[in-house]
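User: Hi! I'm a student and our assignment asks us to look at how structure tokens line up with a sequence. Could you show me two examples?

Assistant: Happy to help. In each example below, the sequence comes first and the structure tokens follow. Example one:
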Amino acid sequence: MNSPLPILSLQRGGIAVFRGPDEPSAIAKTPVEGRVRIRRLGLEGDAQADLTVHGGPDKAVHHYPHDHYAFWRGSIGPHRLLDGFGAFGENISTSGLTEDGVCIGDRWRLGTALVEVSQGRQPCWKLDHRFDGAKVNAAMIRARCPGWYYRVVEEGDAKAGDTMGLVDRPFPDWSVARVFGLLIAGDHRQDRAALEALGEVSALAAPWMRRREKLLG
């Protein structure tokens, strides 16, 4: 099991105008001061603008490794968003944990809450717009550094400085990086057997399970 690691920051945000009045977003999230309640649908006070593609029980909490910020500075250059936390709309910031070391179905004790990894993030155009036109979306897919989502198994609370520790790993062969590669980055073309085997990963969120079925054809 991984050693507990500190939570650098927790972020939340409300719905605001994004690319125009008809395209609101809650991607702009700011650090929480003090403890925050983690409920079934996410951090208390957090929001999602388009519930058809964001939020819900399987995408309640978004975790993005702060480890990747150095990569982004090298990839797109300096940007004000990379000077703090929450640049990619994440709710949780940590260092020392990336997509290669997290598996679908992992259960983590996050403060006093218990959360379970449900899927990787599927990046979209909003990241490019948030970073003033930089090609973040495509670069994130190529670099396979999307972050991941949790469902909340047990509600609780947490604050920056608390730790998160691995409680259970039922699918150790299915890292977020591997699943993202198969379903989003095109690895299924060379590894149909893995795509077929992925069907046994019962913790995978339903939209990604449907994507698997579509790719199987």
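Example two works the same way, sequence first and then tokens:
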Amino acid sequence: MEQRQLGKTGPQSSAIGLGCMGMSGMYGPSDRAESIATIHAALEAGVTLLDTGDFYGMGHNELLIAEALRTAPPSRRDAAILSVKFGGMRDPAGNWTDYDARPNAVKNFLAYTLQRLGVEHIDIYRPARLDPKVPIEDTVGAIADMIRAGYVRHVGLSEVGAATIRKAAQVHAICDLQIEYSLISRGIEDAILPACRALGIGISAYGVLSRGLISGHWTKESAQAGDWRAHSPRFQDGHVERNLALVDALAQIAQSKGVSVAQIAIAWVLAQGDDIVPVIGARRRDRLSESLGALDVTLSADELAAIESAVPKGAASGDRYAAVQMAHLDSEKH
């Protein structure tokens, strides 16, 4: 497995990470045994970065990963890099209620995460969003306290803008920024990516297949009950048709190269810099295998130009989140 450095101060990671969110109901029902088998297959293939959030399934995802690690070979288990987001508040019905990144909340969330995952430390700990009520310096300072206490190895950030990144980096070295980046979500290229590179901060890119939209597999008919994409603008009537037309254009390039649409999309992200680690959300072993096949796809300058022509920057129809969520994203503030 190809390795990439997660920022100048972070760990060596597999070139592709596994995002485990979808294994805890966010995209509709998932199969527990298949989820665990997929984590095992990822570890066996050399994937080391496992990404989760303590609010995914209200702890379900961390417990799932804990079970997978307990039943994995010790050498694979020990190689795993656990990346955990915190801050999202939910009620017993599963509704999102608030966000909390106060220093005491940071330490409280971490205590529960360590217990659920059954580990003594978290490799990368990150606020899932910027808490508008709490200076980022206070949140990062609390994580730094936990690093000094031995409970965390590295500070990460998620979905914050360039100004916030610079403030955070003055408090403690930042390992990586987790943020959406794909062929149809390229907003980070303007200010966020340059800021990260200037500071030596890596990118762990989620949404590289735009939640399946540009995977070549998603159709309107494939949507399941409980799938939050039903509320995502890019999947709405009036937008989704235009977005699937982009997928059709991408499919022609993939077909001529003898690879899948998903592999082209992931390979494109991989080609944007060796400081970027795509985090793929495979919930099944076949999807995992397909995604890892992107590591064998080399894109020439002509092919990259053809992809750019098929899916130009800004071509996506609709925002990546609903309006109320977009309004809370520090990464979208200019």
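Here is something you could point out in your write-up. The chain has one domain: 3-212+272-297.
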